[in-house]
Amino acid sequence: MITFKINQQWKAADVAAKLDKAVSAGLRGAAETLSNRTRMSLNRLTLGTPSAVGSPPNRQTSTLYRGITWVQDATGTLVGVLKNVKYAAIQLFGGKITAKGRGMLPIPIHPLAKQRARMGRGPRSFPFLVLVKNRKGTVMLVKNVGGRNARAEIFYILKKSVVIPARPYFFPQTRNPATLSAMQAAFAQEGGAVFSR
Questions:
Q1: If pLDDT is split at 50, 70 and 90, which confidence band does 74 have?
Q2: How far apart are CA 113 and CA 68, in angstroms?
Q3: 114 in Cβ contact with 48 (< 8 Å)
Q4: Are 133 and 139 in contact (CB under 8 A)?
């Protein structure tokens, strides 16, 4: 039997520092993968077209799309909507929106009202609208059409509150096997690159 003795000296501090860099790099790769796949799950459909309840929201202005990102600092690696997007939470979790004070929320009904809503404009952009209340107590903004046989076109229904159903965009990706696999691969690749240098 022939044996050889191999002496290996480990510098614990150097190994720990390199391991820390590898983990940090791996987490950056995984975070980048998750944020990219989450952004890509937002559909780009016709402006003003709502997505199906329970599916990721459709891209309208791309504000939410741009807000989905990641950051790494001394506290760790964080993936989320890291820019100020007011409606990010209500899209993700759903919930109830209530008008402030004595105000009302205008819900566009008429095609022209929906078109103006897509441009970020509301009822004030229609100077001819009249406030009416029907027998059931529904408050509406309408346009009177015609003279003798007048009829009204409903532009908006006014409500004190509305319930927005959840349209999650992060949760489906964190449960998606393909996304998890891609995150693991990115972690291994970025972390392994530190040791190969």
A1: confident
A2: 30
A3: yes
A4: yes
For the entire predicted model, the pTM comes to 0.73
158 contacts 27 by C-beta, under 8 angstroms: no
157 neighbors 114 (Cβ within 8 angstroms) = no
Under 8 Å CB-to-CB from 105, ≥6 apart: which residues?
97, 99, 158, 159, 160, 161, 162
Strand partners, 107: 157
Q: Which two tokens stand for residue 143?
A: 């346009």
State the residue for tokens 């291994």: 188
By the 10 Å C-beta count (0-12 exposed, 13-18 middle, 19+ buried), 149 is classed as: exposed
Higher pLDDT, 110 or 146: 110
SS3 at position 109: coil
Output the six-digit token pair for 32. Answer: 């980048």
User: pLDDT per residue over 27-70, tens digit each?
Assistant: 999 999 999 999 999 987 766 677 888 889 988 788 899 999 99
Cβ atoms of residues 154 and 144 within 8 Å: no
> What secondary structure letter does DSSP report for 61?
S
CA distance 57 to 52: 8
